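for the recovery benchmark. tokens below, seq after
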């Protein structure tokens, strides 16, 4: 179980000269429930953040697997939370768009914020708990 670092820190857009995030109650409930589940994960900690995609269309939460020895990113996965539904998968670009060919890393679901947070937490934990597949597979 991980206790040294926190999962899903909210990135500060003011560092980049942008307006602060304005998360609504549903987004905050989703984030709180996701963090609560992540606190019990049995996978090694990896960088994760919370923000919005460039078009502000969703609450964005993402994780990045880093190969420390090679100082390289091994993969990134993101959840786009839209209040009553989520789309999640492997990231294909710097704008956190999801890979256009969904494979076993893809999740799409509808429900309450708490239910979606539970499902996304389980999905993230499963993704982080297995070996990373190369991009070309």
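predicted aa per position
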């Amino acid at each position: 179980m991980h206790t040294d670092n926190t999962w899903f820190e909210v990135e500060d857009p003011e560092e980049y000269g942008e307006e602060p995030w304005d998360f609504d109650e549903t987004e905050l409930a989703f984030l709180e429930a996701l963090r609560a589940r992540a606190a019990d994960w049995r996978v090694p900690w990896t960088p994760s953040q919370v923000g919005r995609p460039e078009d502000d269309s969703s609450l964005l939460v993402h994780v990045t697997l880093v190969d420390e020895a090679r100082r390289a990113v091994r993969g990134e996965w993101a959840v786009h939370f839209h209040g009553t539904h989520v789309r999640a998968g492997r990231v294909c670009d710097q704008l956190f768009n999801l890979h256009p060919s969904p494979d076993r890393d893809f999740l799409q679901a509808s429900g309450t914020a708490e239910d979606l947070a539970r499902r996304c937490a389980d999905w993230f934990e499963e993704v982080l708990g297995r070996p990373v597949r190369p991009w070309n597979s």
